[in-house]
Specification:
The complex is a heterodimer.
Chain A lengths: L2 H7 L3 E4 L13 E4 L3 H14 L3 E4 L16 E4 L8 E3 L4 E5 L4 H10 L2 E2 L11 H7 L6 H4 L2 H4 E7 L5 E5 L11 H5 L8 E8 L1 E2 L4 E8 L3 E10 L2 E8 H14 L7 E6 L6 E8 L3 H13 L3 E6 L29 E6 L2 H18 L4 E5 L4 E6 L5 H15 L6 E6 L2 H4 L11 H11 L15
Parallel strand pairs in A: 2-4, 3-4
Antiparallel strand pairs in A: 1-2, 5-6, 6-10, 7-11, 8-9, 8-10, 12-16, 12-17, 13-14, 15-16, 15-19, 18-20, 18-21, 19-20
Helix pairs in contact in A: 8-10, 10-11
Chain B lengths: L2 H9 L8 E2 L2 H5 L15 E3 L4 H14 L3 E4 L16 E4 L6 E5 L4 E4 L5 H8 L4 E2 L12 H7 L6 H4 L6 E7 L5 E5 L7 H5 L8 E8 L1 E2 L3 E9 L2 H13 L6 E6 H11 L9 E9 L1 H17 L4 E4 L3 H12 L1 H4 L6 E4 L2 E2 L5 H15 L2 E7 L4 E8 L6 H18 L18 H4 L2 H14 L29 H4 L7
Parallel strand pairs in B: 2-4, 3-4
Antiparallel strand pairs in B: 1-2, 5-6, 6-10, 7-11, 8-9, 8-10, 12-14, 12-15, 13-14, 13-18, 16-19, 17-19, 18-19
The chains are: A alpha+beta, B alpha+beta.
Bound molecules: flavin-adenine dinucleotide (2 copies).
GO molecular function, one term (chain A): FAD binding
Keywords (chain A): FAD, Flavoprotein
Pfam families (chain A): FAD_binding_4
């Protein structure tokens, strides 16, 4: 039996792959549409028997993130696995299949006055995609990320083994926590079939406080000297303002749930927004507003979030001639983490690196959790993307604390840069991959170190 | 000469003086952890002072193919630190330095032998604390907490050890020193290591997150005539959207024991008490307190006490915190069980425990973290009465069955250790356990790190599990046909 017939024989819906099914430029041969963990297992067994490589997909919103797979025969599309089999409101727990979109899940949960306290920055993200990329939004400061809210998973391994870990209770230390391992694994260890999360009651009230730094970058005659090197003559009001105000906000006993910054372009105003949730939210927001007014302009309380809240940054529209990227361009997105103390400076870093590399950058992210994203225009010339990444990373990693990961970049640019940067335990990660997927059939080559 | 003896002879060369214990009397002080009925005298004990020394010992273990077990303070309740008579026990009690306190970055870097409470004590006056607070926090080590993913009374709101550890330096079973960090991209090996009970290596340096002390804390006690009413109140509080920092329940027998032991003066006639703590911004705590008080009254609380001072707060907690030890006052011997059920299953499981008490003629005192369904039934027995210990053991095991039947877990915080390895197949399939074993094999292909714990008779790494590749050997040899 050839591979196609074997796939058909599983009874799982299979179709030939088309133009829209490419994974970061790699075109699979077939798309399989399983409806259960058992069906995923059947597909994986065929892949094992016929030496086919597989890539899982949910909403396809972030399928171009990560390197292209070195082999890709079957796209395992989980869109049919879109049920929420279990929501026990009294236990504040939900089990959802991997293909459920986070929006659909939120609607179901809201009926019971509950929520999964994760903000997902890309519309259409599925539960599986959310876990596989480990992406999180503003409220990670209060509730953590997917790993912290995940209490159980069912996964299908490369050989078709169906395994679960955890369960449906919040407190549970029986056995290894495979959920942690699969969160952020970009589909390289197995396919997530379903996930169980701890929930939170919808907060009684929410309020936002916003404020701005009007002229984030001011030309001054004072040269900026960093470690004995004169880097520039631009002072950074943003770094100074943020440093003066943010620690007071994040450490405030008023307990904000999130502190975010949006800085869409180096010349535009930089906006800070703080979320307060729960009982007495309005009262607490007012107090935070007074605190922020001390160092920032236009501090005000709002009942609605600013329009950019919880979304990834949009790249600035370049005003000069477009870069010579040629081959179509594509999303360019970086994730930066740093320690709290360095963060204010970190926010400036991308603009400085952008200046050095001759690109435009937009920055948005969490001042409280020390993670933010940088977007560059999609047609930025590949060499410049690489130069930008190099500059930024050298700066962030200088004291061993910061990290820069290139989440998405067009192939031309990606070839010239290291997507992942510093990783402490790569040999151990390789050994984990070898055990879970010895024949390298799951998203091969998509992850760091060629995993 | 045995391999262990050969190895022991080489230990002095990699460790400071007095760091190798071979004296039989001293060795016996390490023969068990907090689960005292499992005992084994370690082959040899080492007391390293630095990661490099731990690594050197672990490398020697590899060279001689000798197993090793890590031990922190030995307060574990599942026999996780039970030594091997044919192995090395690596004790972290001389690795007790707090290496760095970094308030601007909200973190502290500590050696594994540092006690849980020592971190909070070091930062309290600056308005911070280390959130996970196991009842054993005065003694238990951070290394042990990491290994067990320990929780505490306040984990309902604040989570467990895994939610508060930012990085760990570990010595792998190969003897390499590796940094696992939440900052790093790649697999969340830190998350997998935490809770692995010493089977994936030894933590030698731990970076923990410091939390800001809340602005307001309100502690209250509500007394009910029976456990059902108490349970109703818990459900209603959670349903109202309140997440208390802690919500603990004790039944009549546990109250009786606490009264006998520490005279906690809980309201007379109480069939159940709830000890609750609300914390956060003043304004929020006020709102929540009003809601909780109303719900408790509506659910039938006949008395509510609110702590007005630190002393009163401690008094309310005293009964709850002494509960385990206190049952010693009303029973010659007891088993501390640790199981979890979904909160909504609590009434059914408690009724099931009642039936077991009748069936076996064994008393059970119930103390539990009611907010997250984590039960600590204390199974009371008299070891002088023939057969009673066995019946108590049977009741204890049947309680775990009840937990699993209702969708819960065989352990919420005390770990699997040696004690519950045999219960793992009740919760997990062979495939589940084999898959966990893949992680074990990646870290420890030779199975030298704390063998015999967590997993019931695991496969050897490299042994092929159920799913077979290619033809069956018998088919290949022409001895059978497969249909
Ligand atoms: C190519 C390039 C050009 C740049 N040009 C400019 C420019 O022209 N103007 C400008 O304002 N910025 C510039 N920056 C940004 C700048 O380097 C810093 O990021 C920022 O100004 C200050 O950051 P910071 O205060 O967080 O940290 P740093 O500048 O690193 O630190 C400020 C001080 O705090 C100390 N410190 C930092 N972290 C810790 C810690 N964890 N514990 C104890 N002490 C610590 C440092 O030793 C230093 O004394 C540039 C960056 C790059 C990459
Ligand atoms: C009275 C009492 C109350 C308790 N209350 C709670 C509670 O409220 N919540 C809770 O969660 N637990 C509780 N416990 C259980 C126990 O205190 C915890 O499991 C604690 O984390 C164990 O720490 P330890 O240092 O004593 O570890 P040990 O008992 O010495 O070891 C426990 C396990 O950790 C491993 N280990 C130790 N150090 C390391 C290291 N550096 N690296 C890798 N592995 C290591 C050991 O091999 C063993 O498997 C309680 C125990 C007692 C006696």
């Amino acid at each position: 039996m050839d591979a196609r017939d074997a796939l058909e024989a599983t009874g799982v819906a299979v179709r030939a792959a088309g133009d829209g099914d490419e994974v970061a430029g790699a075109r699979p041969r077939w798309v399989a549409l399983p409806e259960s963990a058992e069906e995923i297992a059947a597909v994986m067994r065929v892949c094992a028997a016929h030496d086919l490589a597989a890539v899982a997909t949910g909403g396809g919103t972030k399928l171009h993130w990560g390197a292209p797979p070195s082999r890709c025969d079957v796209l395992v599309d989980l869109c049919c696995m879109n049920r929420v089999p279990e929501h026990t409101a009294g236990d504040l727990v939900v089990r959802a299949q991997a293909g459920v979109t986070v929006e659909a899940l939120a609607r179901t949960l809201a009926e019971g006055g509950q929520e999964l306290a994760l903000d997902v920055p890309v519309p259409g993200t599925t539960v599986g995609g959310l876990l596989a990329t480990g992406i999180a939004g503003p409220r990670r400061f209060r509730h953590g990320t997917a790993r912290d809210l995940l209490i159980g998973v069912t996964v299908v391994l490369a050989d078709g083994t169906i395994a679960k870990s955890g369960g449906k209770v919040v407190k549970n230390v029986a056995g290894y926590d495979l959920g942690k391992l699969f969160t952020g694994s970009y589909g390289t260890l197995g396919i997530i079939a379903d996930a169980t999360f701890r929930l939170h009651p919808l907060p009684a009230a929410r309020a936002w406080v916003t404020a701005t730094v009007e002229r984030p970058v001011t030309e001054t005659v004072e040269p900026y000297v960093y470690e004995g090197k004169t880097l520039d003559t631009t002072s950074t009001d943003v770094a100074a303002s943020l440093r003066a105000v943010i620690p007071a906000v994040t450490e405030s006993p008023l307990e904000p749930s999130a502190v975010e910054v949006d800085w869409p372009d180096v010349e535009s105003p930089c906006t800070v927004a703080v979320l307060v949730e729960g009982a007495a939210a309005a009262e607490r927001a007012k107090a935070l507003c007074a605190l922020m007014g001390g160092g920032l302009s236009d501090a005000q309380v709002a009942e609605e979030p600013p329009p950019w809240w919880g979304r990834l940054p949009e790249p600035p529209v370049p005003d000069g001639p477009p870069g010579t990227g040629g081959a179509g361009g594509g999303e360019i997105l970086l994730e930066v983490r740093n320690i709290p103390y360095r963060l204010a400076g970190s926010f400036v870093g991308p603009f400085m690196a952008a200046r050095e590399a001759g690109v435009r950058a937009a920055v948005r992210g969490s001042l409280a959790s020390h993670v933010f994203h940088v977007a560059l225009p999609p047609d930025t010339e590949p060499g410049r993307v690489a130069a930008f990444t190099g500059e930024l990373r050298a700066h962030m990693e200088a004291d061993g604390e910061g990290r820069v990961v290139v989440l998405a970049a067009p192939p031309e640019a990606a070839r010239r840069l290291d997507r992942w940067g510093r990783v402490g335990a790569l040999p151990l990660m390789r050994r984990v991959k070898e055990r879970f997927d010895p024949d390298r059939r799951l998203s091969p080559g998509r992850f760091l170190g060629g995993i | 000469m045995s391999e262990l003896e050969r190895l022991t002879a080489r230990l002095a060369a990699v460790l400071p003086p007095d760091a190798v214990v071979t004296d039989p009397v001293r060795l016996r002080t390490y023969e068990c952890d907090g689960l005292t009925h499992h005992r084994a005298t370690p082959g040899v004990v080492v007391l390293p002072e630095a990661a490099e020394q731990v690594a050197a010992v672990v490398r020697l273990c590899g060279e001689h193919d000798v197993p090793f077990v890590a031990r922190g303070s030995g307060t574990g309740l599942s026999g996780g630190a039970l030594p091997r008579t044919d192995g090395v026990l690596i004790v972290t009690s001389r690795m007790r330095r707090i290496l760095e306190i970094d308030i601007p970055n909200r973190r502290a870097v500590v050696e594994p032998g540092v006690t849980n409470l020592a971190i909070t004590e070091a930062v309290r006056d600056r308005g911070y604390y280390y959130a996970p607070d196991p009842s054993s926090q005065q003694v238990c080590s951070i290394g042990g907490n990491v290994a067990e993913n320990s929780g505490g009374a306040h984990c309902l709101k604040y989570g467990f050890t895994v939610n508060h550890v930012l990085a760990a330096e570990i010595v792998t079973p190969d003897g390499d020193i590796v940094e696992l960090s939440a900052m790093d991209p790649g697999y969340d090996l830190l998350g997998a290591f935490i809770g692995s009970e010493g089977t994936l290596g030894i933590a030698t340096k731990i970076t923990v997150r410091l939390s800001r002390a809340p602005e307001a804390v309100t502690t209250l006690l509500a007394a009910f005539t029976g456990i059902e009413a108490g349970g109703r109140a818990v459900s209603a509080i959670i349903a109202a959207g309140v997440v208390p920092a802690a919500i603990e329940m004790m039944d009549a027998l546990a109250i009786e024991a606490a009264e006998a032991a520490v005279h906690c003066r809980y309201p007379a006639g109480a069939g159940a008490v709830l000890v609750m703590e609300l914390d956060g911004p003043h304004a929020e705590v006020e709102h929540q307190f009003a809601a909780v008080e109303r719900i408790c009254r509506d659910s039938g609380a006949f008395e509510i006490r609110v702590a007005a001072s630190a002393e009163e707060r401690a008094a309310i907690w005293r009964g709850r915190k002494s509960a385990f030890a206190a049952v010693g006052r009303i029973s010659p011997a007891y088993i501390v069980q640790d199981g979890v059920v979904p909160r909504t299953a609590l009434p059914r499981v408690l009724a099931g425990i009642d039936r077991l008490q009748e069936e076996y003629g064994i008393r059970v005192a119930n103390v539990f973290h009611a907010g997250d369904g984590n039960l600590h039934p204390l199974v009371l027995f008299d070891d002088a009465v023939p057969g009673e210990a066995e019946r108590a053991e049977a009741v204890s095991g049947r309680i775990l069955d009840l937990c699993v039947e209702h969708g819960g877990s065989i352990t919420g915080e005390h770990g699997v250790g040696v004690d519950k390895a045999r219960y793992m197949p009740r919760m997990f399939t062979e495939d589940d356990l084999d898959t966990m074993q893949l992680v074990r094999c990646a870290f420890d292909p030779r199975g030298l790190a704390n063998p015999g714990k967590v997993f019931p008779t695991p496969r050897l790494c490299g042994e092929v599990p159920g799913v077979r590749r290619g033809a069956h050997p018998l088919v290949e040899a022409g001895l059978a046909e497969q249909f």
